[in-house]
Design a protein that fits this description.
Oligomer: single chain
Structural class: alpha/beta
CATH architecture of the largest domain: Alpha-Beta Barrel
Strand order of the largest sheet: 4-5-6-7-8-9-10-11
Number of domains: 2
Shape: globular
Number of strands: 13
Order of helices and strands: EEEHHHHEHEHEHEHEHEHHEHEEE
Largest sheet: 8 strands, parallel
Number of helices: 12
């Protein structure tokens, strides 16, 4: 018989994490544990207010999950069946599913790759994200954190200071940039003007510059953008790829949005089938959540799994980074 538990942890950050819609100095994540008398598995949920998720709402949803006969689950398909019978947020769904897969891996002495029937990645090189900050602080931040070791720098921008920020950072970095606007632009012509102004800069692609609901504007933007465009907020646990590929060139798949390994794999494969590029991304997560994302990196063209680096006291130590490469410390 299985026992399911959930625990909150407050994760203090090394610096203010600011994106176009909010800023924070700490995050509260939830951790699901499933165990029998011999083995246990852990999974992480990083609630995101953009998707109406809060720690409190996830705790209530977990209690609804416990009202089902989940202590008798004996297979992954059995768990999936129960999860279809309860309304829970995608991040919590992922925490539950990944905890159970982690449990199965330990019980069977196998690997996540075996359970999911996917290939392990060769090498995993992550981008590093710089949050929105005062223009005069960016160069020192870059140097103090020795960010030249990363292959790509993802720079968070908003419509107010994006142009000035990109011009400034391009004067001192050698890497290509990923520009991440987190839905900041609502004026498509203003956005096209900005992209034309920076089209000679080393930009790999632009991520979700407009709100997910602005379909017509995104269709128009793709026809006029000098850069490739990647979807983030436009893809959660479902996606209309027949439409999505007309708006974007690639997708950022986050397991916290996808609601689990299995659905994340489906999204990645569907994107590839529609000739779109793929990136594995993350919320602000510990190495527990990051290690989960790493397991899917054989299906990704780009990796953005750096958020554990901004935690003051990372509690699990399942992953470390060296020269921009992510490496497992232990199997989780």
């Amino acid at each position: 018989m299985l026992r399911w538990q959930i625990e909150k942890k407050i994760l203090d950050l090394k610096y203010t994490w600011k994106i176009s819609r909010n800023a924070s100095d700490s995050k509260t994540n939830l951790f699901v544990k499933v165990s029998d008398h011999l083995y246990e598995g852990l999974g992480e949920a990083a609630p995101n207010i953009r998707y109406n998720e809060t720690p409190e709402s996830l705790e209530k949803q977990f209690q609804a999950f416990l009202s089902l006969p989940v202590n008798m689950v004996s297979s992954l398909s059995g768990l999936e069946s129960h999860l279809r019978n309860v309304t829970i947020s995608n991040s919590l769904r992922f925490a539950i599913e990944s905890a159970y897969i982690n449990y199965l891996v330990k019980k069977s002495a196998s690997s996540v790759y075996d359970v999911l029937n996917i290939l392990p990645p060769q090498k995993i090189f992550t981008a590093f994200s710089i949050p929105i900050m005062e223009i005069g602080e960016i160069k020192n931040f870059y140097k103090q954190n020795k960010l030249s070791r990363f292959k790509f720098i993802k720079i968070k921008v908003n419509h107010e200071s994006g142009l000035e920020t990109l011009h400034h950072i391009s004067t001192f970095i050698d890497q290509s940039m990923i520009v991440d606007a987190n839905e900041s632009w609502t004026d498509v012509e203003q956005l096209i003007y900005l992209l034309e102004k920076i089209k000679k800069q080393r930009i790999e692609f632009v991520e979700q510059p407009m709100p997910a609901a602005m379909t017509e504007e995104s269709l128009y933007l793709k026809k006029h953008s000098p850069f490739r465009l990647f979807a983030d907020e436009s893809v959660t646990d479902a996606a209309d790829f027949s439409l999505l590929k007309k708006m974007f060139d690639g997708v950022n798949i986050k397991l916290m949005k996808a609601g689990g390994y299995l659905n994340g794999i489906w999204l990645l494969k569907e994107a590839k089938a529609n000739k779109m590029q793929t990136m594995i991304g993350c919320m602000v997560e510990t190495t527990l959540g990051i290690s989960a994302g790493m397991h899917l990196c054989s299906l990704a063209d780009y990796v953005d799994l750096d958020s554990f680096i901004l935690l003051k006291n990372e509690p699990f130590n399942t992953v470390h980074e060296k020269d921009g490469e992510l490496l497992f410390n232990q199997c989780f």
